[in-house]
Amino acid sequence: MQRGAAVYQGGAVDAAAAAQSKSEQRIGLLNGFAAYGMWGLVPLFWPLLKPSGAGEILAHRMAWSLVVVGVALLIMRRWAWAGELIRQPRKLGLVTIAAAVITVNWGVYIWAVNSGHVVEASLGYFINPLVTIAMGVLLLGERLRPVQWAAVAVGLAAVLVLAFGYGQPPWISLCLAFSFATYGLVKKKVGLGGLESLAAETAIQFLPAVGFLVWLGARGDATFGAEGTGHAALLAATGVVTAIPLVCFGAAAIRVPLSTLGLLQYLAPVFQFLLGILYFHEAMPPERWAGFGLVWLALTLLTWDALRTARRNAARLAAERPGPAYESRVAEAVARVE
Prior knowledge:
Layout: H1 2-41, H2 54-76, H3 80-86, H4 89-114, H5 118-140, H6 146-166, H7 171-190, H8 194-219, H9 229-236, H10 238-253, H11 258-264, H12 267-279, H13 286-320, H14 324-337
């Protein structure tokens, strides 16, 4: 009787845990869609900040992001990491590199959107996974599977086709892809959480950003306050626009598998690409379609290979794990001992 009750209770606990796991995954997916959706739609925001130039918008983004993230960390009382970071010069140096690289990425992206290059900016984030793989081979000595090599080769062909179409290499796309891939590589070595990492990076960016804004004001070129309260509020909102997607991404990263996040990451450049064509009415000549088609082929190969590898790993783990028959025999043996 007691054994039956214990089995029932154990089954109830397993069912509750399974339900909670599904609920957590659902929350993670919603946060993932929210994060990449917001990153995909952010090209609609930067033009609202005109007549501010890309440099002024970037400086406000760096300064206000620190304010927003600092308030969030104060509310959550998560400050222990700051003292540890200061006592580790190597890690602090890596954070400084990350701050410099993401500054380049943000600045180029804002300039690209406000200069009518949304489609080319979206290409940068399409080819980012290919650049990340290439950097893993060149810098970390990683070994690629044949399908991954094929994807990288197709991606290189896409860049050559686009360079022919543009009459020059797609510098905006390449700059965005390489800067973000470098940023991801450095952040992997730093090992800080999303909010903590952004706080550390914007703390390093803060004084140069404020100095630049003061210099602009002294020259009479600053638009903050000169274009009305609404414009000033929009510039201040750059901190919120930066922090909220990151918070959602952090919530997704701890709840859904990396393979799922890998698929969700394509949402942002897809939205940007569609906005570039349908909303900003940017030109898409045949050679540009051909280049994008090759990039999408490369990403399809990567995705297929990643899913196939994940299924194989899951099947191998399932084969190595003891099955119900084994567990039943163990239970019978324990019962005989009792």
